[in-house]
Write a structure and sequence with these properties.
Elements: E1 5-13, E2 16-24, E3 32-42, H1 46-52, E4 64-66, E5 70-77, E6 89-91, E7 104-106, E8 113-117, H2 119-124, E9 140-142, H3 148-151, H4 154-166, E10 173-177, H5 181-192, E11 197-202, H6 205-215, E12 219-222, H7 228-231, E13 237-242, H8 247-254, E14 257-265, E15 286-289, H9 300-308, E16 320-322, H10 327-335, E17 342-345
Parallel strand pairs: 4-7, 10-11, 10-13, 11-12, 13-14, 14-15, 16-17
Antiparallel strand pairs: 1-2, 1-4, 3-5, 3-8, 3-17, 5-6, 6-9
Helix pairs in contact: 4-5, 5-6
Length: about 350
């Protein structure tokens, strides 16, 4: 692959995104394996915020390659790789931007090739720890027969499953703000984990209907049709979860909590709205920050088992499959809330 170029999706700045074909294929070292990416989910939160320049954490400057929900198969092994083989299916492989490419790397999973490091072989051979990549710990081998398009949604579903666990919802009354892809899936996992009741607020009726059928929501509130304050007057919950990504929701939601209740921050906050005035939170409530997932890789195999047993259906939580050249349409679908989630099929 040396000297060849691959396709990718780049955020260009000023809200623009582009399909590109001049990204150098990553060169692999002796302890690395080359991964051919098959699919990558488009994240309605992170990817969209990167394109709009709204990320609350520091990321590479524009133009920068995006995508953090990739899955692919190993197609080439370095000379010292012993714990992987050609054909292994890898969730969340790493992306290496070659020197002089002109692109930044904001996870870059929507590129044709990535790599995985044989960390165990390096440790066994006594390689200096400085050579080990901590990011390798986030690369997960999944069954080779797992549908790659469904696997393009697996990172999102892992994040939702781990969040539902972290919020400890068993026997709790839960209020959720947001019935987008993350909200729908998180509610489904909350129901699986034994939430006592689930109420959801959103402004898109179709999504609220999906919340009932897919996620078992007990009650839906469309803020475009009813006054949400009136609908919630006098009611209290054990958990209020913001999956939209607004600090105003965290403050508002805290006042709907019982004593010791949790206001959960799950939606990705914008860099223009990332500060919470804690003095405005309801007294004797807790703020739990999960803007960035915690424990999502640890639940992978448990999640896959739920899918094998028909408890979770990955296809329920994405609505479109598009090719890389369709990226402009994808961004429009997300911006206009006309999609649950889009999976980018890199084999198209």
């Amino acid at each position: 692959m040396q000297g060849k170029y691959m396709r990718g999706i780049a955020a260009m700045g000023q809200g623009k995104v582009a399909y590109v074909e001049d990204v150098p294929v990553p060169e692999i070292g002796p302890y690395e394996a080359l991964v051919k990416v098959k699919a990558c989910g488009f994240c309605n939160g992170t990817d969209f915020h990167i394109i709009k320049g709204e990320m609350p954490i520091e990321v590479d400057g524009f133009p920068t390659l995006i995508g953090h929900e990739a899955v692919g198969d190993i197609v080439e092994l370095g000379s010292k790789v012993r714990n992987y083989k050609v054909g292994d299916r890898i969730l969340n492989p790493m992306v290496r931007i070659m020197p002089g490419s002109g692109y930044g790397n904001t996870w870059g999973g929507m590129c044709d090739y990535a790599y995985v490091q044989d960390r165990q072989a390096m440790i066994d051979d006594g390689v200096d720890e400085k050579e080990l990549t901590d990011r390798q710990l986030e690369c997960v081998t999944i069954p080779s027969d797992f549908d790659p398009i469904d696997a393009g949604n697996l990172v999102t579903l892992n994040e939702c499953f781990s969040a539902a666990k972290n919020f400890k919802v068993q026997d709790k009354d839960v209020l959720v703000y947001g019935a987008g892809p993350m909200g729908l899936a998180t509610m489904r996992y909350m129901r699986y984990l034994g939430a006592k009741s689930i109420t959801v607020i959103d402004g898109v009726e179709e999504r609220l209907e999906l919340a009932k059928t897919l996620s078992g929501a007990d009650e839906t509130i469309n803020y475009n049709k009813v006054d949400k304050k009136e609908a919630l007057a006098g009611r209290l919950f054990d958990r209020v979860i913001d999956i939209v990504g607004l600090t105003s929701i965290l403050l508002e939601g805290s006042h709907l909590l019982r004593p010791y209740g949790i206001a959960g921050s799950m939606g990705v906050l914008r860099n223009t709205d990332s500060t919470v005035n804690v003095s405005e939170l309801k007294n004797n409530t807790l703020l739990q920050m999960l803007n960035f997932p915690y424990g999502q890789w640890d639940v992978t195999m448990e999640n896959i088992e739920l899918m094998k047993n028909g408890i979770i259906h990955p296809k329920d939580f994405y609505s479109h499959v598009k090719g890389l050249k369709d990226i402009q349409e994808v961004v429009e679908l997300v911006a206009e809330k006309k999609t649950i989630k889009v999976i980018m099929d890199l084999e198209r």
